[in-house]
């Protein structure tokens, strides 16, 4: 029999254990909502979409919104500390009569791109589609008054391109985006709000995008990083998307390892495994399909003074390097306020298209490897064919690890000329003399048995 003091101590300990248990359960529940759809099992349609995505290898990113009027990029509201009340005047000046979805889609196809990612709502909170949840959108607030997302969706479908929607979880305009995150804190919003009401708003807009615009290739999230510790309710949002369109791929530019419920992993202005920009420090490579996104100058949204244009050679090499890292290449354009894509971008896309029309088989439908990327270049492969992309123009002899497959034939892609090589216990050695080198990419084909 317990003495009273012992009995009291016993129940006190049990109560403490129960409190700890429920506290732990609460933390686990929050973590569950915070980090995604834990019990997610991709559908057959989703797995097929992932395979298509990897085969596609090349897409167009489109950053376009009312911010283009100011010609200072898509972060102008934050960078210039523009008050919400002042920023709300911009839609009155947005009348993109030069917008032609057929021109956009045709240019993307001409460049060799297989899909388009369009910014349906950026950090400024303005919807570039006809949202019924809020009138803060292109149809209700601009003199243009047309749904550009619908027009683009219809044209992509007509031309055989898949359309993805970029959607910013971060919102500098919505009053219920509270507590505030790390950005957009000088827009004059009241310091109160209902966070879960904002998440309901976000889910409602995602529902609109996934029910009113036909089949969507994917949702490209951005902005999670603004409030890393918030309860983003990802499990509910991800499930909503997969329930509405099972094939729809979910990716998030959160600069972390993939979270449960996501279907592809992207890297901003970096190749997988690199961290030159500082965005990818925590982004270890997962098992999902990969994508790297990049700009043609140094801006995502239209920037009037940014003339730091990458050459067509640089951009093609980024495409090749992405494929060699087993990733897609998502190349951005930031259309002007009138809806036209600026000539410098058009010129480069056409030049890329010329290259890929000849060398596309070394990119489309391939997987990175079998050789790891190096200073010499990268490799891509499919079935019994390996493509070595020799990017170091100074090398006349290339040394690689021994290929453990029986080689049937080795030749230059451009003229089918034989390549002198040795493959033994010391490695694979290939000769690429100067007269066989190409300025952008010298491709050696290895056929195996």
Describe this structure in words.
This protein is of the alpha/beta class and 449 residues long. The chain has 2 domains: 40-366, TIM Barrel (Alpha-Beta Barrel); 377-448, Immunoglobulin-like, CATH 2.60.40.1180. Helices cover 30% and strands 19% of the residues. It has helices at residues 4-34, 44-56, 76-79, 84-87, 101-110, 138-141, 148-159, 195-211, 234-244, 312-324, 343-359, and strands spanning 58-62, 115-121, 162-168, 218-222, 249-252, 265-268, 290-294, 327-333, 367-368, 377-382, 385-390, 397-400, 407-412, 421-424, 427-431, 442-448. The strands form 3 sheets. An 8-stranded parallel β-sheet has the order 5-4-3-2-1-8-7-6, with helices on both faces. Strand 7, helix 10 (312-324) and strand 8 (327-333) form a beta-alpha-beta unit. Helix 8 (195-211) packs parallel to helix 9. The longest helix has 31 residues, at 4-34. The relative contact order is 0.12.
Which secondary structure elements does this structure contain, and how are they paired or packed?
Blueprint: H1 4-34, H2 44-56, E1 58-62, H3 76-79, H4 84-87, H5 101-110, E2 115-121, H6 138-141, H7 148-159, E3 162-168, H8 195-211, E4 218-222, H9 234-244, E5 249-252, E6 265-268, E7 290-294, H10 312-324, E8 327-333, H11 343-359, E9 367-368, E10 377-382, E11 385-390, E12 397-400, E13 407-412, E14 421-424, E15 427-431, E16 442-448
Parallel strand pairs: 1-2, 1-8, 2-3, 3-4, 4-5, 6-7, 7-8
Antiparallel strand pairs: 9-10, 10-11, 11-16, 12-15, 13-16, 14-15
